[in-house]
Structures are given as C-alpha cells and as structure tokens.
Amino acid sequence: MLMSTTSFLASQLRSSISAAVHSTSALVTSIRTSLGLVAKDSTSSPSSSASRTSSSSAYNREVEENQIPLQHEQYPLLQPWRGFHRRIKSYAHSTVIPVASSYNAPRQPIVLCHGLFGFDKIGPDAIPHLQIHYWSGIHKALTRLGAKVIVAKVPRTGSIKERAEDLHKILSTTMQDTPVNFVAHSMGGLDCRYLISHIHNRNYEVQSLTTLSTPHRGSPVMDWFRDNIGVGHLLQSEEEAMQKLGEAAKSSRAAVLEVTEAFHTMLENAAGRVISSTNRAAPHAAFVSPLLNRLIPFLDTPAYANLTTTYCNEVFNPNTPDDPRVSYFSYGGAVPQIPLWAPLGFPWEVIKAKDGDNDGLVSTKSARWGQYVETVEADHWDLNNRWRLKIGYDQKPFDAIELYMKLATHLYKHGF
C-alpha cells in the first residue's frame, strides 16, 4: 500500500514538472513569435532556424544598445556581474609585489646602524612574533632583494666615540676582509663618520656611508634641553680631546694610529667624570623643581651633549674630516606639520623656528652631508618604519620599504 502510494505521488510530481516545462517553453515561444523573432511555422527548415538565431542575436544587441544601464561603478550592488571579468583582471595587475624587478641589491653587504635609544630587536627569540625590530620589515625586504645585511647593535645612549668603537668591534669579527656599505639612521650616521675618520686599524673596508636624517650639524631641540633642563653639557676635557683627535686625523696615517690610541684613553677618563648637579642645571631652568634638579645627573647621557649644534659644528665636524676613499650620501625628512600633542610635536616646533623644515628631530639642513639624494615626506620615526598611532597628522602615507629599495638600487648604480 505504501509503495503504491509513493509511486503514485512520484508519477504525479513528474507530470507536474513536465507540464510546467512545456508551459514555460510555449510561453517563451509565443512571446518570441509576437516579437517577430521566430517564424510562425514551427516546422521550419534548417535555414530558417539559422535565420531565427541571427534575428535573435540582432535583437539582443539592439536592446542592449538602446537601454539605459545602471552604472555599476555607482551602484555595484545592483549590477554585480557588470565588468566582473575586468575587475578580476585589474585585481591581478594590482597585486603588490614587495620587491620590484626594477630594484637591485648592492654588490657588497649593508650594515644597518641605529640611532639614539636604538636597538636591533626587543623580545624573546623563542617567540619571533612578539619581537619588535628597530628596522621593521627593512632587514627582511633588503634580504629578499638579495642583499647581505648586518644589523648592528651599539650602546643606546652612549657617546659617539663609544658607539663607534662598539660598531668597529662587531665588524672586526664578522666582516673581516670584506667591503661594507654603512646605512645609518639618525645618530648612527655620526657613529659611522667617527669610525671612518678616527679608527684606522680596520680589517674591513668601508666603501660608502648613507645617512638618513642624521643631525650632522646637531639638533636645536637638544640645545633647548641643554639650556632649559640642564642635560647635554659638554665636558671641557672631552672637547679638548676631540680637537686633538682632529689634528691627528689631518696628519699622516702613522701619526693617527699613534695619537688616536692615547687620546681614546683620555676620552674614556673624561666620560667617567661626573659633573655635580649644581653645575648641570641651566641658569634659565627656573621652572625645574629642586627634586628634578637632583635627578638630572641620572637622566643625562653622553649622547645628549654630542647631539647639540654647538658640539657638532664647533667640535665634531671640524675634527672629523671625510675620508676621500669613502663615498658619502644623505637623505633628509620633512613633514608640513606635526600636532603639538604628538611626541614629536614640540621638537618639530622648536626646530622649525630655528632651522626650518624638519622631521620632528632633525632639520633637512642638518641632514645634508656629502651627496644629498633627496628629502622625503616623512617624520623621524617613519624613516626606520616605526609604527605608531597618528592622529591629526597632515602628511601622506609613507612607504619606508620602498625608500630602502631605492637606496639599495642607488648604491648598486654607483658601483657598490
């Protein structure tokens, strides 16, 4: 009984579907006949069938040409199928390739040298995803391009001399008998210049130095902190030692090796002396509380004094001559405005009033050294691809990776 009922229902369902298909076909045929797209004689010859097909195509073209279509660019949800193949093609062409074929890696290794408060990486080696890299994505991109890259790590707040000597130790053990290209951000450029001019017993060859927003002529914001907070005062003995190093650098190579060793010892002794807190406080720092005045000796570092305009222009530069065997290149950064509430906002205002265009810590005037390549629209921290939340910034998005790809290609084209 159940089987017969099921068979009956299935038969009825097939009949209903068949009738619906026939009815739909008849309706379509009737409409096409009334429009003149098919012959009224249903038993047409093959030639009339071909004619029917041609007439149908002509009609479809005519309807498509005369209708007013909705613009799928304006109403994409109403016509998602329009231009779908073109969107697929466009997507394929717009896929970003991190390293373009037009870029070239330099022939010799790149040594990345960080700036003040810099580092190579922070975080556990066992969990790479929790690490923070100073050269975020830059090291990896240069390596993918084909460059050999060394990431140096020197004392974060040490003096130029101390940082240069540590850099020399790293390269002496890792780059023996190898030509290298220095690529330095911020204070790292001063470290490299000191190494090139004053450390001569090298077992590696420095071919070029490329600096990115290095304060070659100091930074007015460091002058402000010295005059108003009391940090960054230069020791007289350190200034004298640097001047004697400069005299040695201008003499013969043999004299350099002999005199440098003696005065490095003098610099070490000078750096070890501590000026009393009463002498450190600037006369203009009336708003500095007595408690902060006592803390200043602990807040001060040798790097602050080495980054003032006084030290760079009157002590460091005159006594650190360029090596004619080394090529010097430089880049600067500048942004039209930085909000005052941002970390670089106040320094930007101070430097703007003194030196003009700047990136929040270094002016474009101070960043120029050797062959100046270009000024990029970026702040100081953009140049090493440091991410942070930007609110109220009036600047275009900056691609640090592309900058370093261009930098690598620039070195390659100059034969390095």
Assigned CATH class of the domain at 110-219 and 307-413: Alpha Beta
**Low-confidence runs of at least 5 consecutive residues:** 39-53, 63-99, 266-287
Average pLDDT: 75
As for the CATH topology of the domain at 110-219 and 307-413, it is Rossmann fold
End-to-end Cα distance = 93 Å
> Any idea what the CATH architecture of the domain at 110-219 and 307-413 is?
3-Layer(aba) Sandwich
Percent helix, as a range, is 40-55%
SSE ordering: HHHEEEHEHEHEHHHHHHHEHHEH
Shape: elongated
As laid out across the biggest beta sheet, the strand order is 4-1-5-6-7-8
Query: What's the Cα radius of gyration?
Result: 36 Å
Oligomer: single chain
Q: How much β-strand is present in the residues?
A: 5-15%
Supply the number of helical segments: 16
Organism: Modicella reniformis
Keywords: Endoplasmic reticulum, Hydrolase, Membrane, Protein transport, Transport
Subcellular location: Endoplasmic reticulum membrane
GO cellular component, one term: endoplasmic reticulum membrane
